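User: Design a sequence. Structure:
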């Protein structure tokens, strides 16, 4: 049974809402290093494609622009607004043919999935949740996409809500119990159509599928119900055909957000708060690790209590943020808390969703950059010039993409509203985004410096050798000048004789120049020895032999 206090079992979550964000890495459409728009392929539609691109609410006249949309917009600073919503250009500031600035985010919504039926544990009654939205978010210049799933339910026992948050939202099982069921996963998950037909069912108990896939592809597979949602995107290591391919970026536990309207949030014990806040990492059946710093320092690390007074008058809204999870808990009887236009629920679905998405977008993008660098170094073979050239192109392309990411997407200040900025900073710090950014930046700089130093070394070597060849070619220039000085008076000789002299001289000079190039390293060493005025002439002449034998393979 679920480990929880008896007081928690009496609490009812009157309104439950969960939002899952699953970041995936999109594989390049081509290998030319140019910016690619994966969403354009998805927008083409076709058989089996249930995704439709959402229109821009700022440009579509038939779409309403309500107060909640306005409040969402003005929450963010101008450069964040340009990232999320795009911008309109003034007539004097830009060229006449300069198009309107579009949002860097392209959103597609999936049709045909209306509900989710979950059997959290074997033998328990299933829980049915409404599917509010299933969306795919693409980003310009970055090969990252987010699968966003928003679910809602009413009147859930608090313990069931906690168990649901822990068990649902895992891309694959991490292991199996003695009965062959996937550990940590919901026992059974089914996506339902409007008429209740099961569209896809989880297969976490199919141990053979996951074992064989991992052994063959050295990558974990994806559970069937998540694979179904992402179609026509296909997992990259698999043999399935599909131009839109993706890879997992990190942990199988999808980042989650939750909104819980509870009857009496003040009645929740400290352990209830801890289990809810640490739901992404703390198993419901596990005894509370009281000596763990995450538990001992829970309030100072993960709670934002600006709107929590713990009084009857309120407000009693508490934010829990661990980076992997962002949870809002409040009083179900407070009208403002569940207001979908101006209240906390409206902010949760708009401002806080974007806040959470941006923090995880930063992390996912940086991990993709790091993966590119690892792959580029892995494929580098310094013995092959073609491999070095390919490595140089990949590094410069990654460096260019990183610059675009830095100047377009990377920022620390999100909003002038204190609580929004504080929550964003809290989420970003728990994810370690700043440290990850510095690591990726240093990796790129190290590789760029290596390429620059290697190019300078090659250039210096070439200049030295050309200088040596030029010096020794002076001998040939003097020799060829003999013909012009009339030392050999053959100006009136037959043409055949003059051609013999010309080609003979050309052959000799070309041979000398070729030998000078082939032996440029030894000749350079000889010149270094002869020009060393710190030694006597006798010593320098005696050292000529050693200088000539140095690096005989050069």
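Assistant: Done.
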């Amino acid at each position: 049974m679920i480990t929880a206090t008896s007081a928690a079992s009496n609490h009812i979550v009157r309104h439950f809402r969960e939002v899952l964000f699953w970041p995936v890495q999109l594989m390049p459409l081509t290998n030319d290093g140019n910016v690619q728009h994966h969403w354009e392929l998805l927008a083409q539609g076709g058989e089996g494609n249930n995704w439709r691109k959402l229109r821009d609410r700022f440009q579509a006249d038939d779409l309403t622009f309500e107060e909640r949309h306005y409040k969402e917009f003005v929450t963010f600073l101008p450069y964040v607004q340009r990232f999320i919503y795009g911008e309109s250009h003034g007539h004097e500031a830009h060229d006449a043919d300069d198009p309107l600035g579009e949002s860097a985010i392209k959103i597609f919504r999936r049709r045909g999935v209306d509900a989710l039926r979950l059997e959290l544990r074997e033998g328990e009654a299933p829980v049915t949740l409404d599917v509010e939205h299933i969306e795919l978010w693409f980003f310009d210049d970055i090969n990252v996409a987010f699968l966003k799933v928003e679910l809602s339910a009413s009147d859930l026992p608090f313990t069931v809500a906690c168990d649901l948050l822990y068990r649902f939202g895992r891309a694959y099982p991490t292991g199996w119990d003695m009965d062959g069921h996937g550990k940590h996963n919901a026992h059974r998950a089914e996506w339902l159509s409007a008429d209740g037909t099961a569209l896809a069912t989880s297969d976490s108990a199919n141990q053979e599928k996951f074992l064989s896939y991992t052994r063959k592809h050295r990558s974990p597979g994806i559970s069937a119900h998540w694979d179904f949602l992402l179609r026509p995107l296909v997992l990259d290591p698999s043999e399935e055909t599909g131009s839109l391919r993706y890879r997992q970026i990190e942990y199988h536990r999808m980042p989650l957000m939750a909104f819980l309207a509870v009857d009496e949030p003040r009645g929740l014990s400290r352990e209830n708060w801890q289990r809810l806040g640490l739901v992404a990492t703390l198993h419901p059946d596990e005894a509370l690790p009281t000596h763990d710093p995450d538990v001992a320092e829970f309030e100072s690390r993960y709670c934002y209590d600006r709107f929590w007074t713990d009084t009857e008058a309120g407000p009693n809204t508490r934010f829990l943020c661990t980076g992997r999870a962002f949870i809002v808990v409040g009083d179900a009887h407070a009208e403002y808390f569940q207001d979908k236009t101006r209240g906390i629920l409206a902010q949760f679905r708009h401002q806080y969703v974007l806040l959470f998405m941006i923090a995880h977008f930063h992390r996912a993008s940086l991990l993709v950059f790091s993966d590119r660098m690892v792959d580029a170094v892995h494929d580098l073979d310094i013995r092959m010039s073609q491999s070095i050239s390919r490595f140089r192109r990949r590094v410069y392309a990654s460096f260019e993409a990183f610059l675009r990411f830095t100047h377009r997407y990377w920022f620390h200040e999100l909003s002038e509203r204190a609580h929004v900025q504080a929550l964003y900073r809290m989420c970003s710090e728990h994810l370690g985004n700043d440290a990850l950014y510095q690591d990726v930046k240093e990796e790129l700089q190290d590789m760029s410096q290596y390429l620059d130093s290697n190019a300078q070394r090659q250039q210096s070597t070439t200049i030295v050798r050309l200088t040596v060849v030029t010096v020794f070619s002076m001998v040939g220039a003097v020799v060829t000048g003999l013909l012009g000085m009339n030392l050999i008076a053959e100006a009136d000789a037959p043409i055949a004789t003059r051609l013999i002299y010309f080609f003979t001289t050309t052959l000799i000079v070309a041979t000398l120049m070729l030998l000078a190039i082939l032996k440029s390293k030894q000749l350079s060493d000889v010149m270094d020895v002869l020009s060393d005025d710190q030694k006597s002439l006798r010593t320098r002449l005696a050292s000529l032999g050693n200088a000539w034998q140095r690096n005989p393979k050069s």
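Residues 1-7, 93-98 have pLDDT under 50 and may be disordered. The two ends are 76 Å apart (CA to CA).
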